[in-house]
Inverse folding.
């Protein structure tokens, strides 16, 4: 198999992407989602049926109990669509100091999610919510029509539960991905703007904003190809390669498990089908955490995490 | 050459310093300093640059500063408003000369 351009870049810089201590367990509970966002690297959406079954949920909880993870991060798809989610929250929260659940916000407004904010509050869950922009047109160009108002309603409701309020200890972080084939704005500058605009226009408070580059995989890659942006975007990402991002890359310290229980170094390698340690390993067969120094499989999508300030 | 303006040429801007390196360096150092964060944010400066790019009708600058505005977190609503500022000033600059027209016409007319 020929070497990827990213591997060539690593060689040029004398770098190898290797694991560090594993501190985070990321759990992707499936591709079922109420939205079909145009930048989704996993092509999640309403027609997807992949969801973690009870047996795998048990295997994941068992793994979280066997090892010591300082953070456990639940993602999807939309985690809210997993019937076992409340059970996971209750059983995983005591096993880590930081239980994170990602949300597209609109799934939190579904009738079946009504009890989740109180459950999250009671278990001090950190909520990480996608909100690409503080502008309805841009946000809906990525996430679909009608999502803006629902997202704002969800944020207001989370604020009512104390999320995002200073001193509450209830962390509500936002994630902004660019709404197209361009790099994200500087995090600190955009965070100031989000704070100002969301507070002024909607009375909404949040804790931190994270900006991430879109990853050229899945639905976003299809759009890049169809729109004639793929070459330019890949060049932009590669041109922004910053070796200083290396030490903080998330793939070095997390192990990611998919809805079938198989392991990856990150959610993007999951989307690209690049298994942890290069072969299919099930979480129930994980007898020890990956050793520091274990090589991480890479592809050209890895440029997304090493461009500019990086994706950590 | 199919067209005078090729988007790929934008990346060759730096080549302009090749036959006048000292002047080129001075210009690009100045350029970099102008766009650094100062009393105005980088985002504000990018919006001004986008507006001026339209005023001087430079396709390279429009390409560069449309991307830069998006990457600095501006949205199409703000960028479009910036262009209306250009239009207002350009149109207004024509119209305000009507004061001259009126003054001269009044002097010449009964």
């Amino acid at each position: 198999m020929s070497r990827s351009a990213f591997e060539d870049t690593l060689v040029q810089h004398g770098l190898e992407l290797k694991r560090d201590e594993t501190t985070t367990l990321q759990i992707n509970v499936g591709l079922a989602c109420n939205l079909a966002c145009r930048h989704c690297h996993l092509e999640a959406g309403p027609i997807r049926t992949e969801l973690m079954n009870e047996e795998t949920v048990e295997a994941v909880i068992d793994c979280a109990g066997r090892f010591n993870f300082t953070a456990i991060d639940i993602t999807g798809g939309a985690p809210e669509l997993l019937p076992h989610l409340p059970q996971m929250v209750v059983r995983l929260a005591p096993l880590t100091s930081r239980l994170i659940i990602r949300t597209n916000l609109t799934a939190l407004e579904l009738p079946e999610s009504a009890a989740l904010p109180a459950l999250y509050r009671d278990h001090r869950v950190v909520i990480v919510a996608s909100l690409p922009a503080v502008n309805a047109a841009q946000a809906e160009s990525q996430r679909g029509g009608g999502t803006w108002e629902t997202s704002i309603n969800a944020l207001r409701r989370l604020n009512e539960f104390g999320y995002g309020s200073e001193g509450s200890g209830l962390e509500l972080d936002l994630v902004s991905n660019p709404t197209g084939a361009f790099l994200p704005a500087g995090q600190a500058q955009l965070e100031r703007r989000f704070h100002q605009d969301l507070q002024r226009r909607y009375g909404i408070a949040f804790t931190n904003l994270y900006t991430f580059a879109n990853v050229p995989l899945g639905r976003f890659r299809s759009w890049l190809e169809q729109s004639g942006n793929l070459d330019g975007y890949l060049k932009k990402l590669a041109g922004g390669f910053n070796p200083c991002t290396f030490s903080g890359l998330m793939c070095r310290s997390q192990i990611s498990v998919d809805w079938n229980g198989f392991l990856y170094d990150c959610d993007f390698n999951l989307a690209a089908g690049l298994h942890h340690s290069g072969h299919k390993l099930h979480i129930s067969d994980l007898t020890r955490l990956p050793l520091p120094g274990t090589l991480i499989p890479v592809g050209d999508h890895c440029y997304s995490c090493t461009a500019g300030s990086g994706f950590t | 050459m199919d067209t005078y303006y090729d988007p790929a040429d934008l990346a060759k801007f730096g080549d302009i310093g090749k036959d006048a390196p000292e002047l080129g360096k001075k210009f690009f150092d100045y350029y970099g300093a102008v766009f650094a964060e100062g009393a105005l944010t980088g985002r504000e400066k990018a919006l001004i640059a986008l507006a001026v790019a339209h005023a001087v009708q430079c396709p390279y600058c429009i390409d560069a500063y449309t991307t830069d505005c998006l990457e600095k977190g501006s949205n199409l609503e703000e960028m479009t408003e910036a262009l209306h500022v250009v239009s207002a000033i350009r149109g207004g600059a024509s119209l305000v000369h009507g004061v001259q027209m009126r003054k001269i016409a009044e002097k010449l007319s009964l």
